[in-house]
User: What shape does this take?
Amino acid sequence: MNLNAHILIGFLILGACTINNDPTKEQQVAVPLSIRETDSVVVVNLINRSKIYYDDNISTAPAFDEFLTEAAELAKKNNFIKPLSEIYSLASKRYRNRSDYGEAINYANEALDLARKIDNKSLLANSINMAAVIYRRVDENSQAMQMHMEAMEIAEATNDTFEQSVSLNGIGNVYLGLKRYHASIEYFKKSFDLAVQQKNVLGQAINTNNIGEALKNTGQLDSALVYFYRSLEYNSQVNSEVGYAICYNSIGDTYRLKNDFKQALKHLKQALVLNEKTRDKINVSVSYSMLGETYLQVYEYTKAIEHLNEGLSIAMEIGSKYQIETCSRLLATAYEKTEDLKNSIRYLKISQVYKDSIFNEASLRHITVVRAKHEADKSKYQIQQLNNETSLQKKLISQQQKTILYFTFFVLAFVAGSILIYRQVKLNAGYKSILMQQRLLRSQMNPHFIFNALSAIQVYILENDMENSSKFLSHFARLMRQVLHSSQREYVSLEEEKNMLNYYLKLQQLRFVQPFSFTITFDKDIDEALTLIPPMITQPFVENSVEHGLRSIEKNGLVEVRFLRDNNTLIIEIEDNGIGLADAQILNKGGAKHESMATRITNERLQVIERMTKKQCSLTITDLHSDSAQKSGVLVKIRIPIIRSDSDLNKNQTSTKSRKIFGKWIK
Assistant: This one.
């Protein structure tokens, strides 16, 4: 396609854009495509034209035809890296199918480098799989395996199940070439499962046929036939004539091995018809040679010679040395059977010549591919070295520029640091004093709580109630583990505090003859896992509700613990429907003192929190009966600032220390 053709396509596209299909609009100005967008469309069209031309002229068309050449030039001009990579991949595949593995690997490496350049994971996995197939063809199985595995890792990382399926199929084919048939079957099955997941019927057909080939090579001919017929069904769903031909050849060859020559000939003839229809001459030659071999086994030497000569003629035409060697070898045997020793010797010589040529060519291809790989690796290494040298030079220049700035900054920082060190030492001492006070106050709570819990356990033991005492001890152990865990920390999450209250209240439920219930609720905008509070700050008041509020009532008791949010303040409410403060003091002379201890320690803890966070905290206790004659019980309300995480806490503490350095505590 020349420049005039490009211009014509551009005008056609622009013309299509200017057509006004809306009669309600009097004027409508079309937005034309840019030159770059037009070239992008042209590149795609050229690639498609190349595919059509190549399929129609497979035996004569060059691998890198004029369409691909022009598409590559346009792609380079506009820096269309993805289409250019696809062009090189297509050329690599064509050279590979023509056994020109040196050119194939060169184009495969070009495609691979471009895919890495744009970091297109799907294209990269596809390019690696394509290159791996070439290495398989020249028996570089270790390199092929490595590349299929690399493609597999990329596909798994991007959840590209199609390329995963291709990689698994490639690994299976490597094992098939190494005659490790059982391993190959496992990978073909994994690839098949992914094809099912994608609803990729063609992938299912390919993997099913591959499994059949592996089974055929292990002598499991009946099982192989099952898979070949299944592959035939899948190919029928996508109406793949190439797939039909492959299946018929596989089925025919399997029947030949089973000595069922009637079925073998039937399916091989069907394969020949389809191969001639698709005009793939190499497959046509293969069909003729397989039919000739089958006729040879049933003693129909004339038909064998006829079909083998047809296969040899086509092989000579397309230059397939492997097929020439196969047909010549079988013809030598056929002529020997007919006692035509002259022709037998002639074809035997031809067979030997091509056999040696194939061996030498395979060795040469292997050397060519290895050399191409070495050159590619060498070029990459040189590029990497240049990049490293450039980076090093830039780094040295940058370091020299920064040295002056660092020196100036160091002098200023030294002066400022000297001033701040003294105040920082004083700040640390004060901060440690606050933390020690907080821990001391909390440590007073733990023995107080443990004493009451052990008293409850003693009751069950004295009553010889082994079942409940065992259950109580089990719950108590869990509760103590939670308490000990939280006692090592200044703050715990609301979730942990809730778990501790759950354990405690369930223990208390076991003690009470008169049942009581409890609820623990949270505002919907409170995150239990991230919101922090001082440990066991609610437990003393929950204990008061149970021990002094609910013990003496004649109705079902209820304890409600609510965690509410008011902007940046956490409100904790502990409410019961017990006898209230006044009656509790009358019934239990020690009650006032007990409550006084819990209230005093909690108030002191809240004062420490105020000093650390510079935010107001409060504790209020209300006798509900004094507010309303219809109500009974006590409502405890604790207000503390919301701390959302350890990082937030550290941030607050650091901020506090910073403020104290300058002698300005914010009240």
Observations:
- The chain has 24 helices and seven strands.
- Confidence is low (pLDDT under 50) at residues 1-31, 362-367, 590-595, 647-667.
